Amino acid sequence: MMKAAAIVQSPWSLNQKPSHYPYKSDLVDGGGFNLSTFKGSSIKIQTTIFPLQKQPHKLEVRASIGNTFGNLFRVTTFGESHGGGVGCIIDGCPPRLPLSESDMQVELDRRRPGQSRITTPRKESDTCKILSGVGQGSTLGTPIAVSVPNTDQRGNDYSEMALAYRPSHADATYDFKYGVRAVEGGGRSSARETIGRVAAGAVAKKLLKIQSATEVLAYVSRVHGVELPDDVVDHEKLTIEQIESNIVRCPDPVIAEEMIKAIDMVRLRGDSVGGVITCIARNVPRGLGSPVFDKLEAELAKGLMSLPATKGFEIGSGFSGSKMTGSEHNDEFYIDDSGNVRTRTNRSGGIQGGISNGETIVMRVAFKPTSTITLFPWLRQWWH
């Protein structure tokens, strides 16, 4: 059976070639093209006929199963961006760990949207509630369920998503896989899914701190073309207060101001930029990680690369290390004053052979720019 699809060519090209967007209303059963879909006559319409093969959706096979991370300490996140709420279930947390909602709320407040002009304007309190697994201020050793309600649900803001897929988002691929998608905010592909990760991360951080004095910190090391030099931050002395001293969360105040200016310049044009987050873990016990497929950097990469918009992951010197020779890149061993085997440099990023060596773990994650504001600049002008 032959069906019709419309290719819309916009007169508002913004100095670029016209963009082609397949409209859902043009691909429904019955075919054909309805000019009443459009409000104006200034849009050029080109109708292309092509065969569409209707394939049955085997939902029992395509059901979503990738929502759990971890083995001994397992985290499952749930919820959609504009659904009733989001949260997580933590399984494997040992009993008698002092824990309250305030422990999670501190981290959730750091993540909360609408904190400054450079973040998403969505207004959410992100107030968490522990539903199970904690009694009288301590964990019970049973699954910990945490829920955070969505209070600023503005599904109508995403009406354009029902008309076309957003470029570089998960709209198209979710539709390809499931035959249905959450139009409002992208559902599970939204960054709001990370609330469950943050709540579970607060528990993991507290457990690591108590058990092995391990500290985990992260900061912004690059925004667009503004980059923080590697030798500016001392990872052994870095504090959370330095990171939280400005809205962009870069520990160097001078570079932070440059980053903010770069964001503002692009933001005022209605566009967005990407960046890099550097994460460090201090006092990591030696011997974490297992060969071959369970190497520590492989586990870290899976957790971090599953974050929305991530496109790159590095450990230690990362990609720049490939430009060095072996003699330049090798971390020389020595015995410190306490008799411990250490490395004079840390180009390996605290992991060698897939196993932690006791040095500070240094990793970086690169995020691509994503923006709903400018996805359909010409469509927004016409539609409104």
Describe this structure in words.
Helix content is 21%, strand content 23%. With 384 residues, the protein is of the alpha+beta class. A five-stranded antiparallel beta sheet has the order 3-4-5-9-6, with helices on one face. A five-stranded antiparallel beta sheet has the order 11-10-12-18-13. Strand 10 and strand 11 (226-227) form a beta hairpin. The longest helix has 19 residues, at 194-212. The two termini are 36 Å apart.
Judging from the principal axes of the Cα atoms, what is the shape?
A: globular
**Spatial arrangement of strands, main beta sheet:** 3-4-5-9-6
Regions with pLDDT < 50 over 5+ consecutive residues? 1-54, 372-384
**Helix and strand element order:** EEHEEEHEEEEHHEEHHEHEHEEEEEH
Average predicted confidence as pLDDT: 82
Q: Nearest-angstrom radius of gyration?
A: 24 Å
What amount of the residues lies in strands? Answer: 15-25%
What is the SS-derived class? alpha+beta
Largest sheet: 5 strands, antiparallel
End-to-end separation: 36 Å
Specify the number of helices: 9
Number of strands: 18
Give the helix proportion (percent range).
10-25%
Summarize the structure.
With 384 residues, this protein is α+β, with helices and mostly antiparallel strands.
Notable features of this structure?
five-stranded antiparallel beta sheet; alpha+beta; 384 residues
Topology:
Blueprint: E1 2-9, E2 44-51, H1 59-62, E3 68-69, E4 74-79, E5 85-91, H2 101-111, E6 129-132, E7 134-135, E8 138-139, E9 144-149, H3 171-178, H4 194-212, E10 215-223, E11 226-227, H5 240-243, H6 253-267, E12 275-282, H7 296-305, E13 310-315, H8 326-329, E14 333-335, E15 341-343, E16 351-352, E17 355-356, E18 361-367, H9 377-383
Antiparallel strand pairs: 1-2, 3-4, 4-5, 5-9, 6-9, 7-8, 10-11, 10-12, 12-18, 13-18, 14-15, 16-17
